[in-house]
Amino acid sequence: MSQEVSVNPATAVLWDPSHSEHDMITTRTLGFWLYLLSDAMIVSSLFASYLVLDHRINTAGGPGPRDVIHPVTAFWGTVLLFSAILAYGAAMVGLKRGDRRIVLAGLGGALLLGGGFLLVEGRDFAQLALQGMVPERSGYLSAFYALVLYHGAHLVFGLLWIVVMMVQVVHIGLTPHVVYRLLNLKLFWFFQGFIWIYVFSFVYLAGAVHGH
Amino acid sequence: MLVSYPGPWTPFFGRLDAQQIPLQNPILFWTFVLVSLGGVAVLAAITYLRAWGSLWREWLTSVDHKKIGVMYCLLGIVMLFRGFIDGVMMRTQQAMAVGPRSPGYMGALHGYLPPYHFGQIYSAHGTIMILFAITPILVGLMNIIVPLQIGARDMAYPYLNAVSFWLTAAATGLVMISLFVGDFSHAGWVGLSPLTELAYSPGVGVDYWSWAVQIGSIATTLASINIIVTIIKMRAPGMTWTKMPIFCWTALSTSVVGLSSFPVFTAAVALLSLDRYAGTHFFTPGLGGNLMLYTDLFWIWGHPEVYYVILPAFGILSEIIPTFSEKPLFGYITMAVASIAIGGVSWSVWLHHFFTMGAGPGVNAFFSIASMLVGIPTGVKVFNWAFTLYRGRVRFDVPMLWALAALVLLLIGGLTGMMLAMPAINYTVHNSVFVVAHFHTMLNVVGFACFGAINYWFPKVFGFRLDERTGKRAFWFFSAGTFVLFGSMYALGFMGMPRRIDYIPFPSWRPLLIAEEVGIVLFVIASYYMIKQLVVSIRDRVQNRVTSSDVWGTARSLEWLTHSPVPFYNFAVQPHINARDEWAWRREHGRGAESPEHYEDIHLPINTPLPLILGAWTFALGFSLVWRMYWLAALSLIAIVVLVIARSFQDDPGHTVPGARIREIEASYRNGLEPAGAAGDGAGGPVAYPGAVASRPQDNVPARP
Amino acid sequence: MVTKGRDAWQHPQVQLARGGQYVGAYIVSLLLTGGPLWLVVRHGGTPWRLMIIIVACAAALTLVQAYFWPRLDLSRTQRWMTAALVLFIPLVVMTVGLTAWMFATLYARTMIPVLLHAPAFGY
Q1: Which of C6, C7, C29, C33 to mutate to probe the A interface, most A CBs <10 Å?
Q2: Burial of B4 (0-12, 13-18, 19+ CB in 10 A)
Q3: How far apart are the first and last CA of chain B?
Q4: Out of C30, C57, C85, whose CB is closest to A201?
Q5: Backbone angles phi, psi at A3, to 5 degrees
Q6: Domain residue limits at A119
Q7: Every domain of chain C and the residues it spans
Q8: What are the tens digits of pLDDT across the range A164-187?
Q9: Is the ipTM of this complex over 0.90?
Q10: What is the rounded radius of gyration, in angstroms, for the C-alpha atoms of chain C?
Q11: What is the CATH number of the domain that holds B128?
């Protein structure tokens, strides 16, 4: 294969001493986004499992989608969740201006609204558990809880991260490292919203359509 | 929430008690004695050489990609040896336990291994060879070579790199400790469902397997991210995509495959663990579980994983063959496209691992055609290598021998793979040793490429060559073993011998089984020569020292531009890329000897013990989950979270090596002096070898507070 | 290694934030989840038609949120993220879709007697 050489070998530049910097923030956010996409593959496997186990035989004579799925409750959770994302958006607007107070207010809002989502979901599941609809009951319920709670686990982790970031914004300030973490958390927070879109659409809405 | 299982449980020790240490088994007892003696000897040697300090400062806490890569390779080679011994044991059992009149020893009815022990050995062999031997060696090679080939100073995330390594080490530790505490899974490396369920495997073996592979697959996912971002973001100025070496292309493709497929594996095994710990019913035969779902999820990962290991091997061949043909690689663009295409197609072929599951003809046909499509880009590659050899000045150095033999094996493995891609043939040979022979041929392609790569890049990393004579002997015995063993196995597969059996009922198969045993003996001789090669080379390291950067004289890519061994900063000044094979281009245009005029300060990350500590806690987490010591599991998890958060409060300020110091080191390299001065304490360094340690001058680089 | 010479929040990725677009995406998101919910609860249509609406709304939501929230577009700062996402979508579709396809007829084919006449999906 011929080499597509257009430079004159006698005068070609061999070294590039000035090129020592690379953009740390973009590098970090790209890596974290790739990590989130790998997480999306876990979510896909859980969705695939749910799709396979969402069958009459897999309920083993126990409760099916119609019994465990409350789409209206889930919608109130959705409102809270999207509001939490919007609050984080406010923090991002604050960051754009370099205003720590808006950042903290946005993070605090996301914390409260995200916590609210967890309360709504937790109450729903506590009621189901009291009626004996637990993951151990059947393959269908195992898949249902695994999928929905995997999203819930993201939220718990996200809340912990928000707390850490609030402390860092106060104590460290908006240094490049704090900024890239805020950007990563932004990606993470939006990403769990993506998961929820599919959980809400394909578990809650589709389940209410098909039922048992 | 938590399930019940047979056997005692105490809050503090969980399921663990003294009886779990299987000292009554003579094989395990003597292994234990040998491993203990070996461990004591190694620790004593380190103490005697007063190497603890430098081991800790320069290796265990290192964030230098070359040192992490070397540690990956060492880990993989040790595990390769462990998996090989498992293979020897299996072959020997199958050669002994033939026919109803074959004698039994040590509690076995036939041969010397009872079925349960045999099951553990073949499960351990598969798991270790694929996940804890080949994968670490390849990740290690990518770690060392990719930043050098793209002219980068380190990986994109040096700290994450160390974390990935120590997580892999933790997972490996779990597999190894299962030898002496409890037992290992007997359900195959694939985790045959529903045999892996608690009802059928109530012991801890499956738990050891499942936690080890989960930790290992998280580590591989992280390593894949690192390599992808390194290649995208850290290429030297001038290195456009079409100037990137093919090994980097394959590393990119393989990392994309790893990044996207390993999470599915994590998910599948995590759901299995939920079944075993929380009593859910994902894969149980009753109460609405679907055991075929596990098989499906497993192979969604399993098949891309096969390409995860083969693609870097293709990259290695694409580096070795041009060097020893003294010609540029034929068909660069098609090679790059084929690398990406193989990664892409790998995602739509997984069902060919279970054509017999009973999916419809439409499904089987789709996956059959997709599987055959893989042959196209692979064929393109083989032809490109052949055309590279054509009219080249071919030299038969040790790396080239391994590469050429890998091509022959690739042809055999590829053709049998085409056969297996046809459902009609697949139905008849499913679960026979024909399949085993096929994938061992393919994995031997990877193995041959790795041995070639080790011989090829060893002088670049360590500064002295591996011994040629013993290396050739190792190669010939290894090749002979491969052909004798797996040739016989193909024949046995056609005769219908099933895989994974500890007793062979038909004496007519004995001659071929004995031929397989002969093959494994040849492997044993080959491994003797491999060890001898290493020992001889280290002994004669002064004669074998290389002084030039281009060790083979005809190498082409960028890693041969910098010194051998590579200094801790890789390149004194960032090179500017003018051509596809930059080093060959400079050499051929007479500019290979030029060095930069100005040296600037170099900024490098600081070493940290945190990855090692995280790995230790992860090991504790896995071990406590295996034995259901829930307090320790909770403690480890909290410790990991706290450490990660604490690290985020303490940013790595890095340290700066002054340009004047770089100039000194570069000058000593050019004068052909012992390059030991290039070692920066706590800052990476050329990979140290015995003898270089003593003469190293004290460095003024600040150590970590 | 770090962004020198300016404040970190002036990094282009931070400067992507747009308050108005966030609010707009928020409202559209609520409409695209609340709308199908209203149809489902009111049984406004055949199951088949409802499923099409649900899938269409989920796809639209994905586009709206991906563009207006993490701002995945083809600009210089974002293009690798966008490329990565686009490359992953086929993998997600294949994981879920091919699995669903192979299991769709599997129960009937594996001859579990009670299931011989079971429909592929649903109840």
Answers
A1: C33
A2: exposed
A3: 46
A4: C57
A5: -90, 135
A6: 24-52+70-210
A7: 1-71, 79-123
A8: 999 999 999 999 999 999 999 999
A9: yes
A10: 21
A11: 1.20.210.10
